Amino acid sequence: MIELKDASKAYPNGVHALNHIDLRIDPGEFVYVIGPTGSGKSTLIKLLNGEEVADSGTVTVNGTNVGALKHRKVPKYRRNIGCIFQDYRLLPRLTVYENIAFALEVTGTPSKQIRQRVREVLELVDLKDKERAYPDELSGGQQQRVTIGRAIANRPSILIADEPTGNLDPNMSLEIIELLEKINQTQGTTIVMVTHDRELVDRFRKRTIMLDKGYIVHDSSKGGYKSL
Ligand code: ADP
Ligand code: ADP
């Protein structure tokens, strides 16, 4: 479970990026976070993955008080949170298979389990036939599917997607949202997706949280821009 209680964050330049945020996201939810540029979406994500610490209030994820984590405990904490971004951030000299395997190697997974898990993940993201390809040989949608595979390889309970369809055409965006829905439904992964994509938000209705100037201005379980 994700819980923010009266969480605020200002940057050293005096910008109040988030103000008195109260928010609870239950395990297995799929939530959109929307709002204009500068409204605090990235800062919210950074509070969740421990990149930034709230100045006041608390951020609790699966029982861990994220702001109170010791530096050396942050990497282990982050294993439970998969992240994907608008730019794919794949390792260009590694194949699809190796990119996913790498995520498992860095967490010390035994090699036999790595082979098994990479096969499962390739199946889930439907890229079995591309395992030997390099990122630059893939379409944007396929590359994003690799990053999703890499992000879920260690079975995180939460997947954070920061504008995952930002660089994709509508058809590929559709593919990505359907894959995220499949992961949400079959793996029970909580999904927090930051997006500007009105079409997706209106078509694939999910709980939708709108930020503006660092405040939650809407939180609608019905979803869609029209219901806000
Ligand atoms: P969004 O993701 O919705 O665009 P951000 O969380 O990136 O919003 O930014 C919220 C506000 O905080 C903006 O005014 C932004 O300029 C400011 N901000 C974000 N990161 C920093 C930073 N590292 N230092 C100073 N100001 C920042
Ligand atoms: P996004 O498009 O994901 O909302 P932004 O363009 O707002 O991202 O910000 C990109 C990065 O720059 C983020 O890591 C954010 O924290 C940082 N950033 C945003 N505004 C500022 C700022 N005024 N000073 C320093 N860093 C900033």
TrEMBL record:
What exactly does this protein do? Part of the ABC transporter FtsEX involved in cellular division.
List the Gene3D superfamilies hit by this protein, alphabetically.
P-loop containing nucleotide triphosphate hydrolases (3.40.50.300)
Q: What name does the UniProt record give this protein?
A: Cell division ATP-binding protein FtsE
Q: Which gene encodes it?
A: ftsE
- Span of domain ABC transporter: 2-228
Recorded hits in PANTHER family, A to Z, give: CELL DIVISION ATP-BINDING PROTEIN FTSE, IMPORT ATP-BINDING PROTEIN
Which SMART domains does the UniProt entry name for this protein?
A: AAA (SM00382)
- MF terms (GO), sorted A to Z: ATP binding; ATP hydrolysis activity; transmembrane transporter activity
The family note in this entry says: Belongs to the ABC transporter superfamily.
What membrane topology does the UniProt entry give?
Peripheral membrane protein
The subcellular location is: Cell membrane
User: Cellular component GO terms, alphabetically?
Assistant: plasma membrane
Q: What keywords would UniProt list here?
A: ATP-binding, Cell cycle, Cell division, Cell membrane, Membrane, Nucleotide-binding
Known partners and oligomeric status: Homodimer. Forms a membrane-associated complex with FtsX.
Annotated GO biological processes are:
cell division
